[in-house]
Amino acid sequence: MTDTKTLRKSFFRNLIPSVTAMWVYSIYTIIDGIFVGKGVGSTALASVNIAMPFVNLIFASSIFFATGTSTLISIRLGQNKKDEANNIFSFNVAIMIIFSIVLLILSLLFIDKISLFLGATESTFEMVKEYLSIIVIFNGFFIVSYCLEVLTKADGFPNLAIIGVSISAVANIILDYLFVMKFGWGVRGAAIATGISQVASCLFFTLHFLKPISTLKFIKFRPSFNIFRRIIGIGFPDGITELTSGIVILIFNQSILKFIGENGLVTYSVICYVSTLVLMTMIGITQGAQPLCSFYYGSDDVKSLKYLFNITLKTIAIVSIGIFIICIIFAPAIINVFITSNDINLINQSIIIFRIYSLSFLLVGFNILSSGFCSSIESPMLATLISISRGLIIIVITLIITIILYGGKGIWIATILSEAICLLISLWSIKISFKNLIR
Fold first, then answer.
1. How far is CA 401 from CA 163, 358, 363, 413, 422, in A?
2. CB-hemisphere CA count at 13 Å for 302?
3. φ and ψ at 90, to 5 degrees?
4. Alpha-carbon distance 182 to 189, whole Å?
5. Residue 107: its pLDDT value, please?
6. Residue ranges in the chain whose pLDDT is less than 70
7. Per residue, what are the HEC states of the chain?
8. Distance of alpha carbon 92 from its chain centroid, rounded?
């Protein structure tokens, strides 16, 4: 086993850039919401929330590729097989570009139907369509940028990941201010700002892999269906976590419109922005440990794997409690950042609902860690079980049951129950994983 001091140092060396990168991604999404809510209005904020499941689809696609590729590359580097690592790296980039082009064509052809499917109403349809039409044009930069950011850490340059996403964030905030607040371009301006910011970070990360200092290089690759299958298989659990979050937003939006009304949708929009920050924090902590876990898995060092899991678990616990306390104490301030309204009842109700929902933040990190750890040691079936259970199956079942029992008010406790039930599945999956490792 590698000594604990070295492991701890490596963990935090990866953790800080990984979480920072995720925070930056989350924060400039939140900034979008703030500018749209303050600069355009609550209807526009609801429109962006309606479009968000499609954005989740784009991001989920990138996670599919990023997690699977990062795991395979880290294992190869742990085995000192650099040529194979470079082949996987280059092959993956080609796949992402082809995928993004197909997604662009199909999305533009069916943009009206997609907008209606997502839940656009008569008052929000044009804004939803306008936002999506621009976002999808930049989808390739979204996908490639995030994947290269993750692979930059696998390449041994975690600090560059912070720089890359910071460039993107600063560009997005400045352009949001100009396009939305100064030029008055509405949701179209927010979408253009987000797209251009992704172009900036994509170029930054691409340049890194063209420099001599990088271990991973663009080479003439050998296409392999087996590698493609393993990339998708390993990346599926983390990708499905993001994808199902979009599906859940869609289902929640429809349920809220039916049982509560558009005011409930405004409240849920705020919850989604904060929940995204929490989710990305937990994914960032998990992804900070994943390359190290994959490396030591490739080296057959089970004791180091156990240590890494334990230190990640403790980090998740501390951060989860801290986030929950912040949400309870500062709920009024958080709600008022997004909602500009003279409706005191809407604001007060939003504060109460937000505090109830924040109980789920105590549990979500443990489930994400369990799924991510299983992925890092090539146990995609267990990881997928956790991800699909928490991200889709259990949440839908609990949502139906709570609505039947409590009506519209039950919507706000469905996520808490879902995360609690999924925690039991996570504990069982981790127990099985460690038994397999020991064998």
1. 45, 20, 20, 11, 16
2. 7
3. -70, -40
4. 10
5. 93
6. 1-2, 25, 28, 42, 241, 340-342, 438-439
7. CCCHHHHHHHHHHHHHHHHHHHHHHHHHHHHHHHHHHHHCCHHHHHHHHHHHHHHHHHHHHHHHHHHHHHHHHHHHHHCCCHHHHHHHHHHHHHHHHHHHHHHHHHHHHCHHHHHHHCCCCCCCHHHHHHHHHHHHHCHHHHHHHHHHHHHHHHCCCHHHHHHHHHHHHHHHHHHHHHHHHHCCCHHHHHHHHHHHHHHHHHHHHHHHHHCCCCCCCCCCCCCCHHHHHHHHHHHHHHHHHHHHHHHHHHHHHHHHHHHCCHHHHHHHHHHHHHHHHHHHHHHHHHHHHHHHHHHHHHCCCHHHHHHHHHHHHHHHHHHHHHHHHHHHHCHHHHHHHHCCCCCHHHHHHHHHHHHHHHHHHHCHHHHHHHHHHHHHCCCHHHHHHHHHHHHHHHHHHHHHHHHHHHHHHHHHHHHHHHHHHHHHHHHHHHHHHHHHHHC
8. 20
- pLDDT at residue 241, as a whole number: 67
Residue type, 419: E
Q: What is the pLDDT of residue 316?
A: 94
Q: Rounded to whole angstroms, what are the CA distances from 156 to 132, 326, 411, 437? A: 35, 33, 43, 26
Nearest to 218 by CA among 141, 144, 162: 144
> Is the CB of residue 389 less than 8 Å from the CB of residue 370?
no
Task: State the Cα–Cα distance between residues 27 and 13, nearest whole angstrom.
Answer: 22
pTM comes to: 0.71
What lies within 8 Å, CB to CB, of 408 at 6+ separation is 256, 259, 260, 264
Structure tokens at 14: 């990866």
Cβ–Cβ < 8 Å for 66, 147: yes
What span, in angstroms and rounded, lies between the C-alpha atoms of 146 and 190? 19
The Cα–Cα gap between 132 and 135 comes to 5
**What six digits make up the tokens of 242?**
């993001």
Residue 206 structure tokens:
């691409």
Q: Which residue has the tokens 């992804």?
A: 287
**Paired tokens of 58:** 């784009």
Nearest partner of 224 among 97, 103, 95, 96, judged by Cα: 95
**pLDDT confidence of residue 96:** 92
Structure tokens at 230: 């393993």
The number of beta carbons lying within 10 Å of the beta carbon of residue 3 is 10
Given the structure tokens 């289902």, which residue do they identify? 251
Sorted by where each begins, the domain ranges of the chain are 4-438
